[in-house]
Amino acid sequence: MARPAGDPQEPVARVPGRAAGGGTDGGPDAELDRIASFLTRLTGLLLRTSGEGSELIAREVGEAGRALGAEVSVLLVMETATLTVTVPDGRTRTVIVHAAPEVARLDRIAALKPLVADVRAGRAGAAEASARLDRIEAAPAPYPWWLKLLGIVLFSLGFAPLMQPTWYELGTTAVLATTAAALAVASDRVPRLARVLPLVASLAVSVVTLELFAGDPAHGGPVLLMLPALFFFVPGDYLSAAAAELGAGLITTGAIRLVYAVFLLVQLCVGVLLGVYGTGTSTRALFDTAADADLPRWVLFASWTVFTVGTLLAFAIPRRFFWHLLALVYLTVAVQSAATALVGETGGTFVAAVVLAALATLLSRGPDRPPRLLLVLPGFFTLTVGSLGMRGLTTLAGGHVVDGFSDLLELVLVVTAIAVGLVLGATLVPDRKTGGEPPCSVQLRLG
Fold first, then answer.
1. Alpha-carbon dihedral 154, 182, 372, 378, rounded to 10 degrees
2. Which of 11, 95, 113, 149 could bridge 99 with an S-S bond, Cβ 3.0-4.6 Å?
3. Higher pLDDT residue, 426 or 23?
4. Closest to 386 (Cα-Cα) out of 239, 268, 260, 226
5. Taking Cα atoms as reference points, which of 156, 153, 123, 294 lies closest to residue 218?
């Protein structure tokens, strides 16, 4: 999910050793500077929106550079990329780009895809591409703040029946998710809050849950009551993206992302524990036993539509992609349910990830189609990997050792199943132009 990793700022680029007098208005270095400037900004935007993985950044930047007449070497880690841009006569620019990865503004990814396609096809030079990039970066979010708040609430409500299919779960989630959503929207305007948002959100949700909703064990454990409201902050996408990067050979990037995802999970757990201590509740109250189901089947079925609408609004996805996302969400749920009945939960998750990745790769072909990230994201959320980590840590902290380690073991298995499934699914549908292999013009070195 979208978790602010720091100040919501533009990417930082440093250009060491730039030749004196090599401006952008004229002179022998002008065209090189224009190409390097565009590629720097393109890398920054891709890096900033790479919460779901960074394995495609080098390819996108390399193909764009090649189309503009330059060779590009990319040294990549999770939040930093070093570009070396070389034109045929041997002149070079080296640029360092830094940006905190997140997935908050997916409308920019949607707008970036046709731009990169035009650059690759030779329909846009460096100057025109830079001007279009200006417009993408300057464009306001497609939905106002109150719709983002509503989106986070709907996102949580759609997920709630997966934790406990009860009316009580839906009612508590409506209140708790509104609290968490208000903090998330406020963090867009208060950078200092953004730095500690997962901690603050989990603390607030924990206090409200324990004071108002967790008095009767018949309604289920407090952990299960809290989880839907915190789902927006749980780094299940980071965990699976890290595992997928490791599986694809991006060792350093995957390892860093994995450490960061674990840090976010621990931060959420600490917030819950602070709420426990602040309310004077015993940590033994952190159990995750589910209540008896009382939701009719039609509510369970409709919840995924609510979930998809919430995803659209919460992550600023253009509404023209709604039907694509809805179809993939229901397909992923159907495949996972059917496969789980045949081969168990881990096997069912693996099969669902393969199908989701293959279809998303196929449907994303063409500059006018939705980007693959947008197609994968909502379906991926249905696999609920991050909630297992949150449940495991909080249950373990509550002293329920067997249940806690059971959830954490399941987390490891499911993360691996999702990651390998996504890699396999993408491999089954190779890129139409390159056959799935990165173009030879890109030298990807992992720092």
1. -30
2. 11
3. 426
4. 239
5. 294
